[in-house]
Amino acid sequence: MDPVTLGMAVLLGVVEGLTEFIPVSSTGHLILLVDLMGFKGPPGKVFEVAIQLGAILAICWVYRAKLIGTARGLLAKDEPSWQFAYNLLMGFLPAMVLGALLHGFIKSVLFSPWVVSVALIAGAGAIVAVELWKPAPRHETVDTFRPWLAFRIGLFQTLAMVPGVSRSGATIMGAMLLGADRRVATEFSFFLAIPTMLAATVYDVYKNRGALGDGDWLTILVGFVSAFIAAMLVVRWLVGFVGRHGFIPFAVYRVVVGLAMLAALTLGRA
Fold first, then answer.
1. Is the pLDDT of residue 107 over 90?
2. DSSP letters along 114-154, please?
């Protein structure tokens, strides 16, 4: 295996882990970096999707007490545990259905640095608008969510099928518009990422299984581990940061990156 390719896989994994749970679009960053570096990863864009599972496992570790408690509650037929699990299922449902229907179109048409750059800038405007005009919070804990609320948050999550929108950003902003407290919206976005990204990874790997060689699996593993380690550094920090500062700083960052990438793409074609 080419050490340069493995080095790029480490870098991309770190970027994935650092950006998966903040509203700046981890997939968008990967698409931009892959284009800039000329990274020749596994076929079918499977690398960009599969390494996100490393970041998701970091969530499982950080919130292991909640997840283990929920699993035990399900076995014991504990009503709050079943309610939490049902909410995750309802939130995941829209992405599961639309992701399966639009998978080919998304990977072949929307995985473009031009799409990402525009989506980063447009998403920044949406973040600012939500922060300025969001309703007063009515939901102070994840346990107060109801299935219909979770389903509507899941509809917002489907906007992130456009690379550059940000899965966490769409989910969090949608939850805030629907009356969730900022910190609670962020935590629910974490939990909703678990079934969503697990399903996306399994589906992508299955679709491309015949084209993946031994070297591709090693590249994915290196990116996967790097993403897990980087995400561990971000998750706890993010909840505290957004509680103090909100999401406006991330909107500014999105505009800077989006404009810089548009400039680079334009000059590259000149």
1. no
2. HHHHHHHHHHHHHHHHHHHHPPPP-B-SGGG--HHHHHHHH
First to last CA, the chain: 35
Amino acid at 95: A
Helix axes 167-177, 182-207, angle to 10 degrees: 140
- Residues 52-105 have pLDDT tens digits of 888 889 989 988 998 999 999 999 988 889 999 999 999 999 998 988 888 777
Whole-structure pTM value: 0.85
CB atoms within 10 A of CB 26: 28
Q: What is the pLDDT of residues 171-186, one digit of tens each?
A: 999 999 999 988 899 8
Long-range contacts of 125-133 (CB under 8 A, 24+ apart): 125/251, 126/169, 126/173, 127/23, 127/169, 127/173, 127/247, 127/248, 127/250, 127/251, 127/254, 128/248, 128/251, 130/173, 130/176, 130/177, 130/247, 131/246, 131/247, 131/248, 131/251
Which long-range contacts link 135-141 to residues 24+ away (Cβ below 8 Å)?
A: 135/177, 135/179, 136/179, 137/176, 137/179, 137/180, 137/181, 137/182, 137/184, 138/179, 138/180, 139/179, 139/180, 139/181, 139/184, 140/181, 140/184, 141/184
Q: Is the pLDDT of residue 139 over 90?
A: no
Distance of CA 48 to the CA centre of its chain: 11
* Structural contact between residues 71 and 77, judged by C-beta atoms closer than 8 angstroms: no
